């Protein structure tokens, strides 16, 4: 039970860090830009991974 809550906190923090990293990459793309065709895919996948980790961590933290 305690181990699930610890994993929940870790996943929650990973999700928050992923949101921050995605925001920083978006800021980099809008200011400096790049000619890489896969940049939007990396942006969306990073956001999706952040949402999944955030919600899974939140679910593990509040589970009884």
Automatic annotation (TrEMBL):
Bilayer-spanning residue ranges: 37-62
Protein's recorded name: Immunity protein
Keyword vocabulary terms for this entry: Membrane, Transmembrane, Transmembrane helix
Keyword Transmembrane helix: yes
Keyword Transmembrane: yes
């Amino acid at each position: 039970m305690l181990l699930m809550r610890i994993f929940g906190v870790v996943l929650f923090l990973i999700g928050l860090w992923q949101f921050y990293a995605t925001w920083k990459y978006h800021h980099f793309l809008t200011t400096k830009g790049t000619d890489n065709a896969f940049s939007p895919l990396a942006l969306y996948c990073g956001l999706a991974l952040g949402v999944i980790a955030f919600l899974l961590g939140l679910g593990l933290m509040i589970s009884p």
